[in-house]
Amino acid sequence: MNPRPIIGVTGSHTGGLAAWWSCRLAIGFCGGRARRITVSSPADIQSIDGLIIGGGADVSPSLYTDEPDENEAVWREFRWKNLVSAIVFAPFFLVLRLLLSTKNPRTIDQMRDTLEKELIQQALARDIPLLGICRGAQLLNVVCGGTLLRDISSMYEEVPRLRTILPRKQVQLAGGSKLAACTGTNVLLVNALHDQAIDHAGEEILVCAREESGIVQAIEHSKKTFTIGVQWHPEYLVYRRDQRALFCALVDATRKTIKEKTCKTG
């Protein structure tokens, strides 16, 4: 029998329940077990087989720039083939997020930054499969020495900016990328809930997806087995096969890692 890998899912200790339950559903569907990790409920990297760094608060600019942030003190806390599934499931995730999400999305949580930064460093050192979602992708890039755009509003002067939980934004995936391989496509429809984005890629970080405006939508580590960061929220799109595939690829990668470790120790 295939093992059920334990996937740690990070999030805010003061909210983020919609993302947590959505990730838990996606991981369970793909054969894994989700474990919630927060500042108030941390976990040792050795107690999990895979890791999801979830979305939420903005990454603190202090992690990737020496410039002062005047706002930091204030920032406290459809494709037709999928039409039927979208009609059935999309309203569920929309209502779930409305009911469980906090009202202050643009926050800075330095304690969470510290926790997740350490987890990312440990996961990279051990080559533990990792998926970064929205802020998780941004923090992954920062940990690897990259930088972020602190406000993407100016990037949409000529291209209308979408902000939606529904899959209405088209992104182009790089051919031959791990992301394209696990989703089975070079074009994805995704949602958009972010205010920051990746600017300069970190060391050994490859940009593997962009949107029409040129904003980076996904990255992956060139030297690791499975380390991918996506700017959108696939946990709210698990009714789409190409988005579920991302979670299933993560779970499959953890199974492979467990098997390899067992062979080495056995």
What does this protein look like?
- With 266 residues, the chain is of the alpha/beta class.
- It has a single domain (6-265), classed as 3-Layer(aba) Sandwich (Rossmann fold), CATH 3.40.50.
- It has helices at residues 17-29, 83-100, 110-126, 135-143, 178-183, 241-265, and strands at 6-10, 33-37, 50-53, 130-133, 148-149, 164-173, 187-192, 197-198, 205-211, 216-221, 227-230.
- The strands form 2 sheets. A 9-stranded mixed β-sheet has the order 2-1-3-4-11-10-9-6-7, sandwiched between helices.
- Strand 10 and strand 11 form a beta hairpin.
- Helix 1 runs antiparallel to helix 2 and helix 3 (110-126) crosses helix 4.
- The chain is globular and about 60 Å long.
- The two termini are 17 Å apart.
